[in-house]
Structures are given as structure tokens and as C-alpha cells.
Amino acid sequence: MRQKGDEMITTSIETDVLTLGARAGELVAHHRVVADNTYTRWFATGAATTDEVRHLTVQFSVFSHQFVEAQLRKVINAADLQTYRAGKEILMNELGVIFKPPIGGGVGSGEGDLDPALVATDGSVDGSRFRFAAAHFEWLLRFAAPLNLGFDQLGKRRHATASTLRFCDELLRIYGSEDASTAEGASYAVEHWAAAGFWKELIAGLRVVQLRQYPELNLAFWTWHDKVEDQHAAHTDDELAQAMVLPGFDQGKFLAGATEMLDGVQAFWDGLWADHLVGRSTT
Ligand SMILES: [Fe+2]
Question: Distances from the Cα of 48 to the Cαs of 24, 200, 212, 268, 277, in angstroms?
């Protein structure tokens, strides 16, 4: 009887995961930031001027930095130990602890630790090592150097436009929410958005800029993240199943968190597009 009951519960959870997964998947796929991102579509053509590439770099650097703070909030507000640790994997890796590949692979050594083109995109920070130069922000600093952007021009809120700030504040509010259902919805949305191809569009545009003008441009910050997102996309159903068994999980809040987070992401790209239209850039 007991076993039969367990099977019934499992089946019901599986059905719920499939139903919510389908709804959330539709929500993300049809959101304008995924279905029709004017800025990244344009950027992929390589039409951006150098000043526009610098502007993107500065705005992206503020988001990247604020993401670390949002991720810390997510860890602090985690509803259970498993979510807490999963959040820490991302947080510590952002800060410079390289992923130790699963069995069979070893941690790189020497320069291999520091070059995002060589460090692992999968594995765990547990038992791995910290390197200052492996922090994602430092990768971005190295990308930005040939564009004549230095440390004091990157990553601070004071460098952000109003649209970038809105995105950053929505990340802190929703992605880092104390409400687990809201935070999981935002997390789901961010991962699906990130896996939907915007990295590839930015990389395509940056390759043109690299060929045209800056052969020394190191694109590894962008290509590493693109590789990671391809892997994340494969894990999201598992994460959804884990979220749904959290105590007090609320599907409505999950979906609202996902929608509001995507609206925040949209504000970021719309801001960059509006800046392009009026000729605003970082000089
Ligand atoms: Fe990152």
C-alpha cells in the first residue's frame, strides 16, 4: 500500500513538473527578450562602432558585478542545503574558484587556471582552488583592456545607465528574493534566457570587431559563458523538480518571478538599443 502511495505521489509530482515546465518554457520562449531581442540581433551583424562596443562592455560589467551580489543574496536566502550549495557553486566560481572537473579530469595548472578558454565549465568548486585571475570580472577586465577601459571604468553602479540599474535592482529584488518560489522563478528565467542564444549573438558581433580592428581582443569571457549555458539548459528540468518540492512552493509566485525577471532583462537590452538609436556610447 505504502509503495503504491509513493508511486502515486511521484507520478503526481512528475505531472506537475511537466505542466509547470511547459508553462514556464512557453513564458520564456514567447517573452520578447528571448523571441525578439533587437539589440543582440543587430549586434551580431558586427555593425556596432568601437564606442558602442565599449558602451556594451561597461554596461555588461556593471550587470556582471551586481550579479555576484544577487547570487550572494540567493545563497543567503536559500530554502534548503542543496539549493544553498548549488548557489555557492555559482557564487564561488564567479569570484575565482575554478570548477574541478568530475572524475577523470584534473584541475588545470599554471596559466591553464587563469585562461577562461582552458578552465572547466563543469564540475564543482568543492576542493578546488581559488585564483584571483580566474574571477569572471577579471576576465572581463582583460577583455576590456584593448578597448582602453580600465578598472575604474568598469563594474560600478555609478557607471550604469538607468536601464542597466533597473536590471541590476530587479536581479537583487527577484533573483535574490527571500521568497523561494519567486527566486526559483527568476533563476529559471535567467537560465533559459541565457541559454537562448544571446551569448552567441554577442560573440558573433565581437568576432567581427576583433577581425576589423582589435586582433588582441580576448573573447574567452564570452565564449566560456556560452559553453556553460549550453550545459545549464540540460539541467533545468531537474532544478524545477527540486524547486517544486520546497516547502510552501507556489506556482503563481514562480511564474510571476520568471516574468518580472525577464522584464528586467528586457529593460537592459532595450536601454542599449535606445542608446544606439540616439548615438549614446561610452567614449
Ligand atoms: Fe560569470
Answer: 33, 15, 11, 17, 11
Give the C-alpha distances (Å, rounded to integers) separating 184 from 24, 40, 41, 209, 259.
11, 26, 28, 37, 12
Kindly state whether residue 247 falls inside one of the protein's structural domains. Answer: yes
Cα(64) to ligand 1 centroid in Å equals 7
pLDDT value for 117: 72
Choose the most confident range, by mean pLDDT, from 116-125, 232-241, 271-280: 271-280
Asked whether residue 144 is domain-assigned, the answer is: no
- Within 10 A of 69 (CB to CB), how many other CB atoms are there? 14
- Find the 103 Cα to ligand 1 centroid distance in Å: 23
Of 138, 102, 129, 132, the C-alpha closest to 221 is 138
Expressed in angstroms and rounded, the spacing between residue 177 Cα and the centre of ligand 1 is 20
Please indicate, yes or no, if residue 111 is contained in any of the structural domains: no
Question: Would you state the cell numbers that stand for residue 58, as one nine-digit string?
Answer: 561597461
Q: Ligand 1 centre from 96 Cα, in Å?
A: 10
**136: CA distance to ligand 1 center in Å?**
5
Cα 93 to averaged position of ligand 1 atoms, centre (Å): 8
Number of domains in the chain: 1
Q: Does residue 138 lie in a domain region?
A: no
Residue 177 · residue 254 · CB < 8 Å: no
120 grid coordinates: 572547466
Lowest-confidence segment of 68-77, 92-101, 259-268 by average pLDDT: 92-101
C-alpha cell at 51: 564606442
Please give the residue range of the domain that contains residue 173: 15-49+65-78+160-278
Cα 138 to middle of ligand 1, angstroms? 10
